[in-house]
Hints:
By secondary structure, the chain is α/β, with parallel strands linked by helices. It contains ten helices and eight strands. The radius of gyration is 17 Å and the shape is globular.
Amino acid sequence: MPKIIIANWKMKLSVEESLRLASKLNVGLVKSHRQVIVCPDFVSLPLIAASGFSDNFSLGAQDCAIKNNGALTGEVSSSTLKEVGATYVILGHSERRQLQKEDDVTINEKVLAALEAGLKVILCVGESAKEKAAKETKKVILKQLKGALKNVSLKKSPKGAEVLIAYEPIWAIGSGEAMAAEGAAEIAAYIIKEGEKLLSKRPQVLYGGSVDVKNAALFLKQKSISGLLVGGLSLEAEGFLSIC
Ligand code: 13P
């Protein structure tokens, strides 16, 4: 199975910059043997889809609403995201947990809404520096998994339903201090074990947090790590393509 590389552009690019980068990836990914998923912002996503991106990558959104229809001013539903070209959606990113105060109940509603609409989910979990210091990493992750995946069974979901789990230790995000690959592999194995119980299917687990051109290969070498969720490095074509 090819390893998966996900680009999370966050809110870092203008529409023009997003289109330019997508077009460079279109060319550069032709020879890639990876599965690449690019997650632009809500506004750029349909424009990239309409600009005819190639079969070499899929598009993902960075969030979705808790329902697929309703009086939710300012929200965007999974069904609409699918309609305009998204295949995946990132949910439970620590930036949304922290800044938008999203809790496990909200994330669970979003996971259920996304799967119902036929989007594949990239669920993020991970501990803070304080939780790491208190040796609570596994406990925190288990709580996040149980909360986000409540009533989610891939056996009962529509055909093709998928939940990828991204392990992103919060302290490693944007800090330039990635986790050691062996440590990340151990946590990934734990997530596979616990995730399988909840999903009735063995999930693929990715690592995210200060991935760079040097450390990417170390993570990708690990058996339990199926791919990478990349922030900063994904904003620039040359570096990102070098890991794809
Ligand atoms: P960085 O790769 O910039 O640390 O960001 C990781 C991330 O948050 C991806 O979702």
